[in-house]
Design goal:
heterodimer, A: alpha/beta, seven-stranded mixed sheet, six-stranded mixed sheet, 13 strands, B: mainly alpha, two-stranded antiparallel ribbon, 14 helices, 68% helix
Chain lengths: 371, 340
Amino acid sequence: MTNHARFTRLRVTAVTGAVLLAALGGCAAGGGSSAAGPAEKGTCKPEDITLVQSGRGLENEYYVSVDAGAKAFAASKGLTAKYQWIASDGDSSKQLSQIKSILANGGECVVLNVDPNEASIVPSLVKEVDNAGAWLVTQWNTPPGLVPGADDQHWVAHMSVDGVPQGYDTAKALFESMGGQGSVVALQGILDNPPAKERFAGLQKALAEYPGIKLLEDQTASWDRTKGQNVTQSLLTKYGDQVGGVWAASDSMALGALAAINGAGKAGQIKVSGIDGLKEAIDAVANPNSGYVATTQSTAAAQGAYGLNIGFAAATGQIDPATEPANHRAFNLKPLPPITAANVATAPDPTDTSNLDFADPFAQAGSEVKP
Amino acid sequence: MSAAPTTTTPAPAKPQSHRLHDLVHAEKVPVPALAVLILITLVMLLVNPSFLSLGNLSTLAVQSAVPVVLAVGLTFVVLMGGIDLSLEGVMAASGMATAVLLLNDRNGFDLGLWAVAVAVAVGAALGALSGFSVAFLRVPSFIVTIGTWQIGLGIALLLFAGKPPRIQDAGFLRLAVNPVFGLPLLVWTAVAVVLIGAWIQHYSRFGRYVMVVGGGEDIARLSGIPVRRIRVYGFIVSGFCAGLAGALATARTGVGDVGIGTGQLFITIAGVVIGGTVLTGGRGGVLHSVVGVIVMVALANGMVLAGVSSFIQQAVLGAIVVAAAVTTMWRLRARLRVVK
């Protein structure tokens, strides 16, 4: 009873304090969102740190590789026992409540690397982390215009992948394999997802450079393999022998397209390109008769490993987020060359973490994500 | 009274218009759904005649196969006024079981078609679990099957273990590709399921009991029908079909995938309803649902052939589903029926 009362009172005080600070901070910084006040470097001992990785679910090969990268980082710091993976299963409120309950047990030394289920939950995540004094790195999703600012001490960084070069590189490889002549169809992701938009913009950039290539039609297949297969079947019926290539915004859809092409008895004649670097796609690129000409290297392991690495560096005081330059606070990973027949033999497995170097947490930081 | 026809005189032949009227109003044939299908075909003939080309009809048959098998099973549950939301989870479990038990790149199993038998058994077992909970523990099917959906996904996740198992059994993969009498074996399997399902519904004791239970459970019980057992059987049939559908879908993609059933629940339930199988039970049937599912698949295919922009396809599909459902249920509107 006494304990409970004290806990409640403490919490009330803390909340009041936080609200006051937030109000003060708001006055000083003109709309800043940090509640913990500026410029407190992390003081956690490395062995006290808990590493938490949150993403959709391990039924998805991408997250399996994220998990592999995150585990590799945890192992490099001897924190394997203090690493945990939490699955949101595509449910935003579940993700938020999971993170809240982890932070409820005292959060100053919790490092979170989160792939927010949707952009809109980022502000609540940041608030939770500020209140608990924990350290947050976000991946992929953030509301337009919102990136870690100078007064966001605990939202350490936001990391993403620029889809434009990915769409552009794979499209170029596809067009080259067709000899720069012919017609293609495109399979898009879910249309309002930023990666879908960026990757398609990359395709259009490549189309502008190849006047001999015509885009017959683009259709969404919602990142889904079976849908990719069905839509490709329908497009092949519609355009028949005109189709010389299928550009897909993800490997899942491209693999569905490949199955449809094989089903139509045109294996190898119609070229296919995907993005994401799934193991199956890499194997298909390695098979010269498959017609699968390009994919990109997976960024998953790097996102898992460097996300935690940056959070860890902030929590231990190795870096001070407030003094880091803008291109360390919100950035795209450095673009990697695509995987084609020319380099597939040396392409790393998506779960391979042997080439990750943890000495510099910003080793993979590329272009700045502008707010 | 002397003018009244006696039992010995044959009934006079009905005029033509009456026969047509009877046909349109007979609930044995899914007339409204067929009308919608014909309407889609006519519109498509104007927009893009290749809709009716042999190649596209074969495409439609292949794309319909999996949801049709699902719909046959689901119909028995819906006819009894229940719902089976677990289809996608059951497909995940059975599809993944198929992939890891066939010759694959992950383990040493090579069970051949026995893998499909196991997959179907997994589906039937999950169906039995749902059915038992609904019939004997009296939990609404809506909730129970959300649970079995998650169990199915969980089993699939365990079997997935981080890397999708790729099937290397060439014979199994041919099911979805190599034509036999012009269509892949996948399609003939679905046709067989439809014929067996229709036979069970119309000619077996179980099938007729299902209709009675759907029409009114209390009356069925008073007539001595083992209502609970019939309910369990209904869910087993649904799980069996979903298990088979998971194996067939896996034959199409050639890889074990937890998301193999994604989106199938919507197509199947929409198809069942558009076909005229009423969600409150007792009306409709296997053939109705099959026509309804074909309407859904034809719509998705037709929109690609018609070149409808990706940005508005979803909305168009939704609008057509509502319109088709209204058309199909127009006749039922006047009857004393509670719509929930």
